[in-house]
Amino acid sequence: xxxxxxxxxxxxxxxxxxxxxxxxxxxxxxxxxxxxxxxxxxxxxxxxxxxxxxxxxxxxxxxxxxxxxxxxxxxxxxxxxxxxxxxxxxxxxxxxxxxxxxxxxxxxxxxxxxxxxxxxxxxxxxxxxxxxxxxxxxxxxxxxxxxxxxxxxxxxxxxxxxxxxxxxxxxxxxxxxxxxxxxxxxxxxxxxxxxxxxxxxxxxxxxxxxxxxxxxxxxxxxxxxxxxxxxxxxxxxxxxxxxxxxxxxxxxxxxxxxxxxxxxxxxxxxxxxxxxxxxxxxxxxxxxxxxxxxxxxxxxxxxxxxxxxxxxxxxxxxxxxxxxxxx
Length: 327
Known about the structure:
This protein is α+β, with helices and mostly antiparallel strands. The protein is about 35% helix and about 20% strand. The protein has 10 helices and 17 strands. Helix 2 (about 50-55) packs across helix 3. The longest helix has 30 residues, at about 5-30.
């Protein structure tokens, strides 16, 4: 065989090996490649997923957002983690922890006002061993309800409970400006400089707090008694705010939610909210959304007769029912 033919044959064998190796690499690459992750497209004419979950009584809108972010919710078998998704429950299958979301029953919206005692927690966790706020509502027709926001275990005062997710969102979310007012007792005499810091907002681990209204009720060397009004509800916010300026909260009571007050509602008792009280809270939230608030801390309770006096019949009936299960 001539030198040229040998060289050609050699090149042929080499190219064949190289081609074989190339095919092997491409095959392995194809095997290693992961399939593209499926996504769900948002439907413009659909309903927000968090609103749908809230309307089914699974949680408030914020609670529903947490369920979505933590991967508990699937749509058509695809795990959803992004917020703001719009779905069509008529044609799409929505599941929470593998359980299908059944069509919502037309059920009556229920609204309760509880004066929470210390030692009671605001949670729907079934495995919770401590007393829960929802268990103090002894109305047999209450169904699945949840607290509108939270009040920490050591604190007492007003808590709204409902099965209306849209109402809960409007009362709870800071953007709607429905204020909450607290009676705060501090250990020691707080100075004007520290009070001003709290009024302007202090930096906590989650960012700076919104401006607060702080009124001095009484100050002595041993204790300071204040009235604090906020329109946001971060975890243990008031306790953390005063801790940031060097003072310990020894007693905390939520006395107002918007126009609702704790007058004539003893600690550990509950009552139904009247229809006009619900309507007024919604009206306050609409004012806040449209920028109608005249102060950075929203509208405090105006001592309306309906919040404490006009609902006397409801208070009495509810108190009699609540007396058995609240203590």
